[in-house]
From TrEMBL:
It comes from Azospirillum oleiclasticum. Its main location: membrane. This is ABC transporter permease. CDD domains: TM_PBP2. It is a multi-pass membrane protein.
Length: 297
């Protein structure tokens, strides 16, 4: 029988990266992330992935059923629905990401400033937030987009992005204020004030970075809401206009007249909207569970 002499070598365990850790701990969130990445890649490389030009009209194949030539069928103008769904991902992601980003940035600045300055500033900002929260998000977006009109740049309506981002601001501001109130009581904030740092430096360098976890979760969640809201406004004729490929626009117009004869004209755009919203919600919920220490066992 042999005996082991000497110290037993210690092996340092390998540390997983944040992405791998998230995949292992949140498998459902990983599925949502994969779906989001697939959507982004399809929209970026739409010229390569899409089988046809989304604006190409084929009068010989009007309302053609799904087949080997047209996997998702064609619409009332003979345009390939699969190609328009792929290109529509560009519109949905551009509007969703930009709207959510603008709303979260403005809401974070507003909520953090409200918590930091307090007193009259906090009172005025919060009453303004309360007024904006009194309006349903769809109604507020409708009012803003109707008031601003259209300003299309590069196929994307800039005013539509602004209209969708405005209802996001008060919701983010309320959450950011709650998180910033606890950060304001930390000793390093008092130390920064004692050191003579400016208000803007304290807010930007010491407060906002420490409340980014809930803001990041809201950012992913509001992308899904922005995509759904863009589709709703486009369906009502207040969003993206023809001939731009957009999921909500594909559900409106002639599609409502031919849904019984050609149900694929509304099925596939509707599935695309549901798929995108589900993917972002799944990823956002998993990201919340992963970042929030209160929800960890």
């Amino acid at each position: 029988m042999t005996t082991v002499t000497g110290p037993i070598p210690y092996r340092i365990p390998k540390r997983r990266g944040p992405v791998l850790t998230f995949i292992v701990q949140q498998p459902l969130g990983a599925i949502g992330l994969v779906a989001i990445v697939a959507m982004v890649l399809a929209s970026v490389f739409a010229e390569v992935v899409a089988p046809y030009d989304p604006l190409e009209v084929n009068y010989a194949a009007i309302l053609a059923a799904p087949s080997a030539d047209y996997w998702f069928g064609t619409d009332a103008f003979g345009r390939d629905i699969l190609s328009r769904v792929i290109y529509g991902a560009r519109t949905a992601l551009a509007v969703g990401v930009l709207s959510s980003l603008i709303g979260c940035v403005l809401g974070t600045l507003l909520g953090t400033a409200s918590a930091y300055f307090g007193s009259t500033t906090d009172l005025v900002i919060q009453r303004f937030v309360d007024i904006m929260l009194a309006f349903p998000i769809v109604v507020l977006a409708l009012v803003v987009v109707a008031a601003l009109g259209k300003n299309v740049i590069g196929g994307i309506d800039v005013n539509l992005i602004i209209a969708i981002s405005i209802p996001i601001v008060p919701k983010v501001a309320r959450v950011a204020r709650s998180a910033a109130l606890s950060v304001r009581q930390m000793p390093y904030i008092d130390a920064a004030r004692a050191a003579g740092f400016s208000h803007s430096r304290i807010v930007m360098r010491h407060m906002i970075p420490n409340i980014m976890a809930p803001v990041l979760i809201l950012f992913t969640a509001f992308i899904a809401q922005a995509i759904l809201l863009e589709a709703s406004l486009s369906f009502l004729g207040l969003g993206v206009t023809e001939p731009t490929a957009a999921w909500g626009l594909m559900l409106s117009g002639n599609s409502a007249d031919f849904y019984e004869q050609a149900p694929w004209v509304i099925i596939f755009p509707g599935l695309a909207i549901s798929f995108a919203v589900f993917a972002f919600n799944l990823f956002g919920d998993s990201l919340r569970d992963w970042l929030d220490p209160k929800l960890k066992i």
